[in-house]
Amino acid sequence: MEARSCIFQIITLTFIFLSTAHSTIFNFPAAFNFGDSNSDTGNFIAAGLDRLNPPYGQIYFHQPSGRFCDGRLIIDFLSKSPSIMRPFVPKMDAMDLPHLNAYLDAINKPSFRTGCNFAVAASKILPPTATSISPFSFGVQVNQFLRFKSLVLQVVAKGKKLYKHLPEADYFEKGLYMFDIGQNDLAGAFYSKTFDQVVASIPNFLAEFEAGLKKLYDEGARNFWIHNTGPLGCLTENVAKFGTDSSKLDEHGCVRGHNEAAKLFNLQLHVLTKKLKSQLSDSNITYVDIYTIKSNLIANYSLYGFEQSIMACCGYGGPPLNYDTRVSCGKTSVLNGTVTALGCSDSTKYVNWDGIHYTEAANHYVASQILSGKHSDPPFGR
User: Fold this and answer.
1) Burial 10-35 (b: 16+ CB within 10 A, else e)
2) Assuming Cys at both sites, which of 13, 43, 87, 362 could form a disulfide with 351, CB separation 3.0 to 4.6 Å?
């Protein structure tokens, strides 16, 4: 017990040091986000593509909030630091902006003064096909932004009362443009392609991403914040589907092929960001290594206060994965009788929430590491 206590003290002191040495203040008047369910604050649900039942949103919001999580997402913590910190996580120095409202959720939360979120769950970088769950690909999200900007500028120019709920004209140049997308392109490809075919598709994903980012640049965007993709092979859903052969799993119980593909995607994405920096010399482009942060969490989950790294908190089937594709979190199905996928007693002890998405506690940890500045290129500090 004394050795364990000593280790925790060392971790705590290390986090405090990193927070002091590398934390930063983000002086952006607004943020505009593009992505998938990792950062969707309500668009998928507002579009009528699905509905979320309790226990979604049970923490913080105390009801389903449109987020595929038990509480807040990484983007929620990046925009505004919480007052209560999880043990061994440093105080975060975020943008101090309200939570980003979903573009399609105009009735529920109509204020877009400090930005807008265009991310939609299940979205891909590539254009949608007839079998796509979400029609809101990256290109569609960019076009939604262009329409949003055009309408905002019209309203602001006319001096209508609504301007109080909309960004100032110069916010579009001074704002931060955030991206977290590509996970679904990779993960979805594994259902119909071999590993080599998935890897061969990566340049197509990134060419589409580059085109969308440059379109935003041409519209005046200058500050870009790009997340790479996490360890897909550690998501419960992928372990359940592709990890039935234990030889395909690594020492942490993750599907090795999925993680290797994610690494290759990230390597090429990093190369692309460096190319864009040289081409768009008056822009500020930050590449954030989400993969390393999440991999470290999976590998060392117990050090950060978690008890389960891969098993889903909200699901059906019990250990070791508590995941069944036929009964998603919060829903009821008829299998051998009527069954409901329920949440665990304490989601703060789990990294994975529903088999695909992280818990608020895990998102909080990831956000704290992002804001330390040590996992970004270029690194940042005070």
Assistant:
1) eeeeebeebbeebbbebebbbbbbbb
2) 362
